[in-house]
Amino acid sequence: MIILLYLLRIKYILDSNKDKKLYIDILIISFMDESEEWFEVIKLKDHLYIIRERLDEVEPRFLTKFTNIYLIIGTNKALLIDTGTGLYPLKPIIKKMIGAKELLVINTHSHFDHRGGNEEFEDIYIHESELGNASMIFDISFLKDSPKTRVQLFERRNFRYNPPHTLHPLKDGHEFDLGELTVKVIHTPGHSVGSISLLTNQKELFTGDSAHFGAMYLPKKRKFPTMLSSLSILLDLFQESDDIEIYPSHEDFQVKKVLLESLIKGINDIETIWDTKVKDKYLQAWVLNDGNFTYII
Ligand SMILES: [Zn+2]
């Protein structure tokens, strides 16, 4: 259907004698598939790409605009951090970028917006405490009533995620050697029990959903100490070198340590804005805002 539409457009352009360049542009677009139109790929460095997905175009009621998927390419292997919602195939895009290099895939945690594409890939790594979650069939029929009708594409997967071929458990401190690039696993529980962050030897810190601007999904108050201790572990990394760049799994990327500082302060001060909380019926949670972050608890 898309191809037919483009053919009609090309015919219209030829009929109306528009210039050649426009004709070529349309031809190029017609060769882009649905995945290439859906994902936004940005080359950040020779070894680092970000692949962005619009979560608000899947379900706006999660109050999140972007999900950030990252691809790190070493001289021997490549490492994909998260697989998005799986609405459109991710693997063909990654294959184009890494060629014949071996690919490792890590989930920062097992929530649906980070593991949806898992079944496209062979080997998935996840923290040992979320191995059980990630190895089960996951029902995503909660997306069926999204105001964004494109979610009906999940029908082709029966609104469920199947587990990946092979799941490997990760522990804190595990190190991946990609060839001239190493990536270290840091267990940062709080957002979820097995949330991990990743630090490269190029001073790039991937924080998953443990720290990002926008809508932060926090655990219940009694688990704030766990979240705060994880954030302190991440902030302590800056004592070694102050110029670490932070790459979160949602919203802004390549941010500075002020993200961690303001999030720690925000969580510590949450009592001061507790009276302003509003119940979100869809999320079944409290929503608060302190000017820096929206907190969902
Ligand atoms: Zn998320």
How is this fold's topology laid out?
Layout: H1 2-15, H2 20-31, H3 34-38, E1 40-45, E2 48-54, E3 66-73, E4 77-81, H4 91-98, E5 102-106, H5 112-115, E6 123-127, H6 131-134, E7 138-139, E8 160-161, E9 166-170, E10 175-177, E11 182-187, E12 196-200, E13 204-208, E14 214-217, H7 224-240, E15 245-248, H8 258-268, E16 278-280, E17 285-289, E18 293-296
Parallel strand pairs: 4-5, 5-6, 6-9, 13-15, 14-18
Antiparallel strand pairs: 1-2, 2-3, 3-4, 7-8, 10-11, 11-12, 12-13, 16-17, 17-18
Helix pairs in contact: 1-2, 7-8
The chain binds zinc ion (ZN).
Zinc ion binds next to α5.
Structure description:
25% of the residues lie in helices and 28% in strands. The protein is of the alpha/beta class and 297 residues long. The protein has 2 domains: 1-31; 38-213 and 241-257, 4-Layer Sandwich (Metallo-beta-lactamase, Chain A), CATH 3.60.15. It has a 7-stranded mixed β-sheet. α5 (112-115) links the parallel β5 (102-106) and β6. It is globular. The structure holds zinc ion. The site of zinc ion (ZN) has 6 residues, from α5. Zinc ion is lined by residues 111, 113-114, 209, 249-250.
Salient structural properties:
about 300 residues; five-stranded mixed beta sheet; Metallo-beta-lactamase, Chain A; binds zinc ion; disordered N terminus; seven-stranded mixed beta sheet; 8 helices; about 30% strand; about 25% helix; alpha/beta
